[in-house]
Amino acid sequence: MPTARRLKEIASLGQKKYRDQLGQCVIEGARSLESALQGGARVHDILLGPGAEWTGRAGAPEPERIDAQTLSRLARVSTPPGILAVVSVPLVEEADLPARLAASDPVLVLDGIQDPGNVGTLIRTAAWFGVRAVVGTVHAADDAPFGTADFFNPKTLRASMGGVWDVLLCRSSHPELLLQTFRDQGRAVWVADMEGEDARAWAPGPGSVLVLGSEAHGPSTAAATRATGRVTISRPASRDNDAGPSPSAVESLNVAAAGAILLSRFSSCRSRLEK
């Protein structure tokens, strides 16, 4: 069983400030652990609750047993899966990210998206569609007082379904500089907005950057002023009135749903270029 000091450290990882200090987070369940190992994550601890079994894997630390009370204290869900692991958070420094990308690598920027479930879903979707890097903004500007939810929040991790290990993750404190660097590299920076090019005709080129803002505030000034273009998802025309959008009480799409539609265009356009 881990030492009392180590258990206290692991328990503290439920808070972002301690995740940042230690550079570690907790993942839950055998499937999450396997995804992390497959993605090359550095695993520090593997903890098994009563009755839990894990066959082990080369390069992984030996699992340690904990009692039910300790498992309940460390887990972030009401019904713990029985296996917990502590892993290093795989963050890329903001200044290093542009050099880590190939010219054709697509990038997703999450601009002040606060809901961890949406952030995790977007990371999962980005990984599925071959996005190379996901950036989360950390804003201090008056027009964008809220940053993107922590990539390693327990809810984000669960929603990502292992996607955090398949993409480069970066927190950006200066998104205006990072977006300008992307532009200087020759990348198109597209901002999703209420008005812009219709997504059905949108054809993002290789290495494009897609910026998704929050549902409440939209894109920040940092993103809007450095966009090379805007893209929107138009509501389908009514069957009874082909000239206009169908009437609906729904005002907009959830950002994760909108992101999935737009990210699918990254994949389809890249596939056409590769043929």
Q: Roughly what percent helix? A: 25-40%
Q: Name the poorly predicted regions.
A: none
- The string of secondary-structure elements, in order, is HHEHEEHEHEHEHEHEEHEH
User: What is the CATH superfamily of the largest domain?
Assistant: SPOUT methyltransferase, trefoil knot domain
Mean pLDDT: 88
What does the main sheet amount to? 6 strands, parallel
Secondary structure: number of strands: 10
Structure, described:
By secondary structure, the chain is an alpha/beta fold. The chain has two domains: 4-88, Ribosomal protein L30/S12 (60s Ribosomal Protein L30, Chain: A, 2-Layer Sandwich), CATH 3.30.1330.30; 97-274, 3-Layer(aba) Sandwich (Alpha/beta knot). Helix content is 33%, strand content 19%. The chain has helices at 4-12, 16-22, 30-38, 68-74, 97-100, 116-128, 154-160, 175-184, 221-224, 255-274; strands at 24-28, 43-48, 64-65, 83-88, 107-111, 133-137, 168-172, 189-198, 209-213, 229-232. A six-stranded parallel sheet has the order 7-6-5-9-8-10. Helix 6 packs parallel to helix 10 (255-274). It is elongated and about 55 Å long. The mean pLDDT is 88.
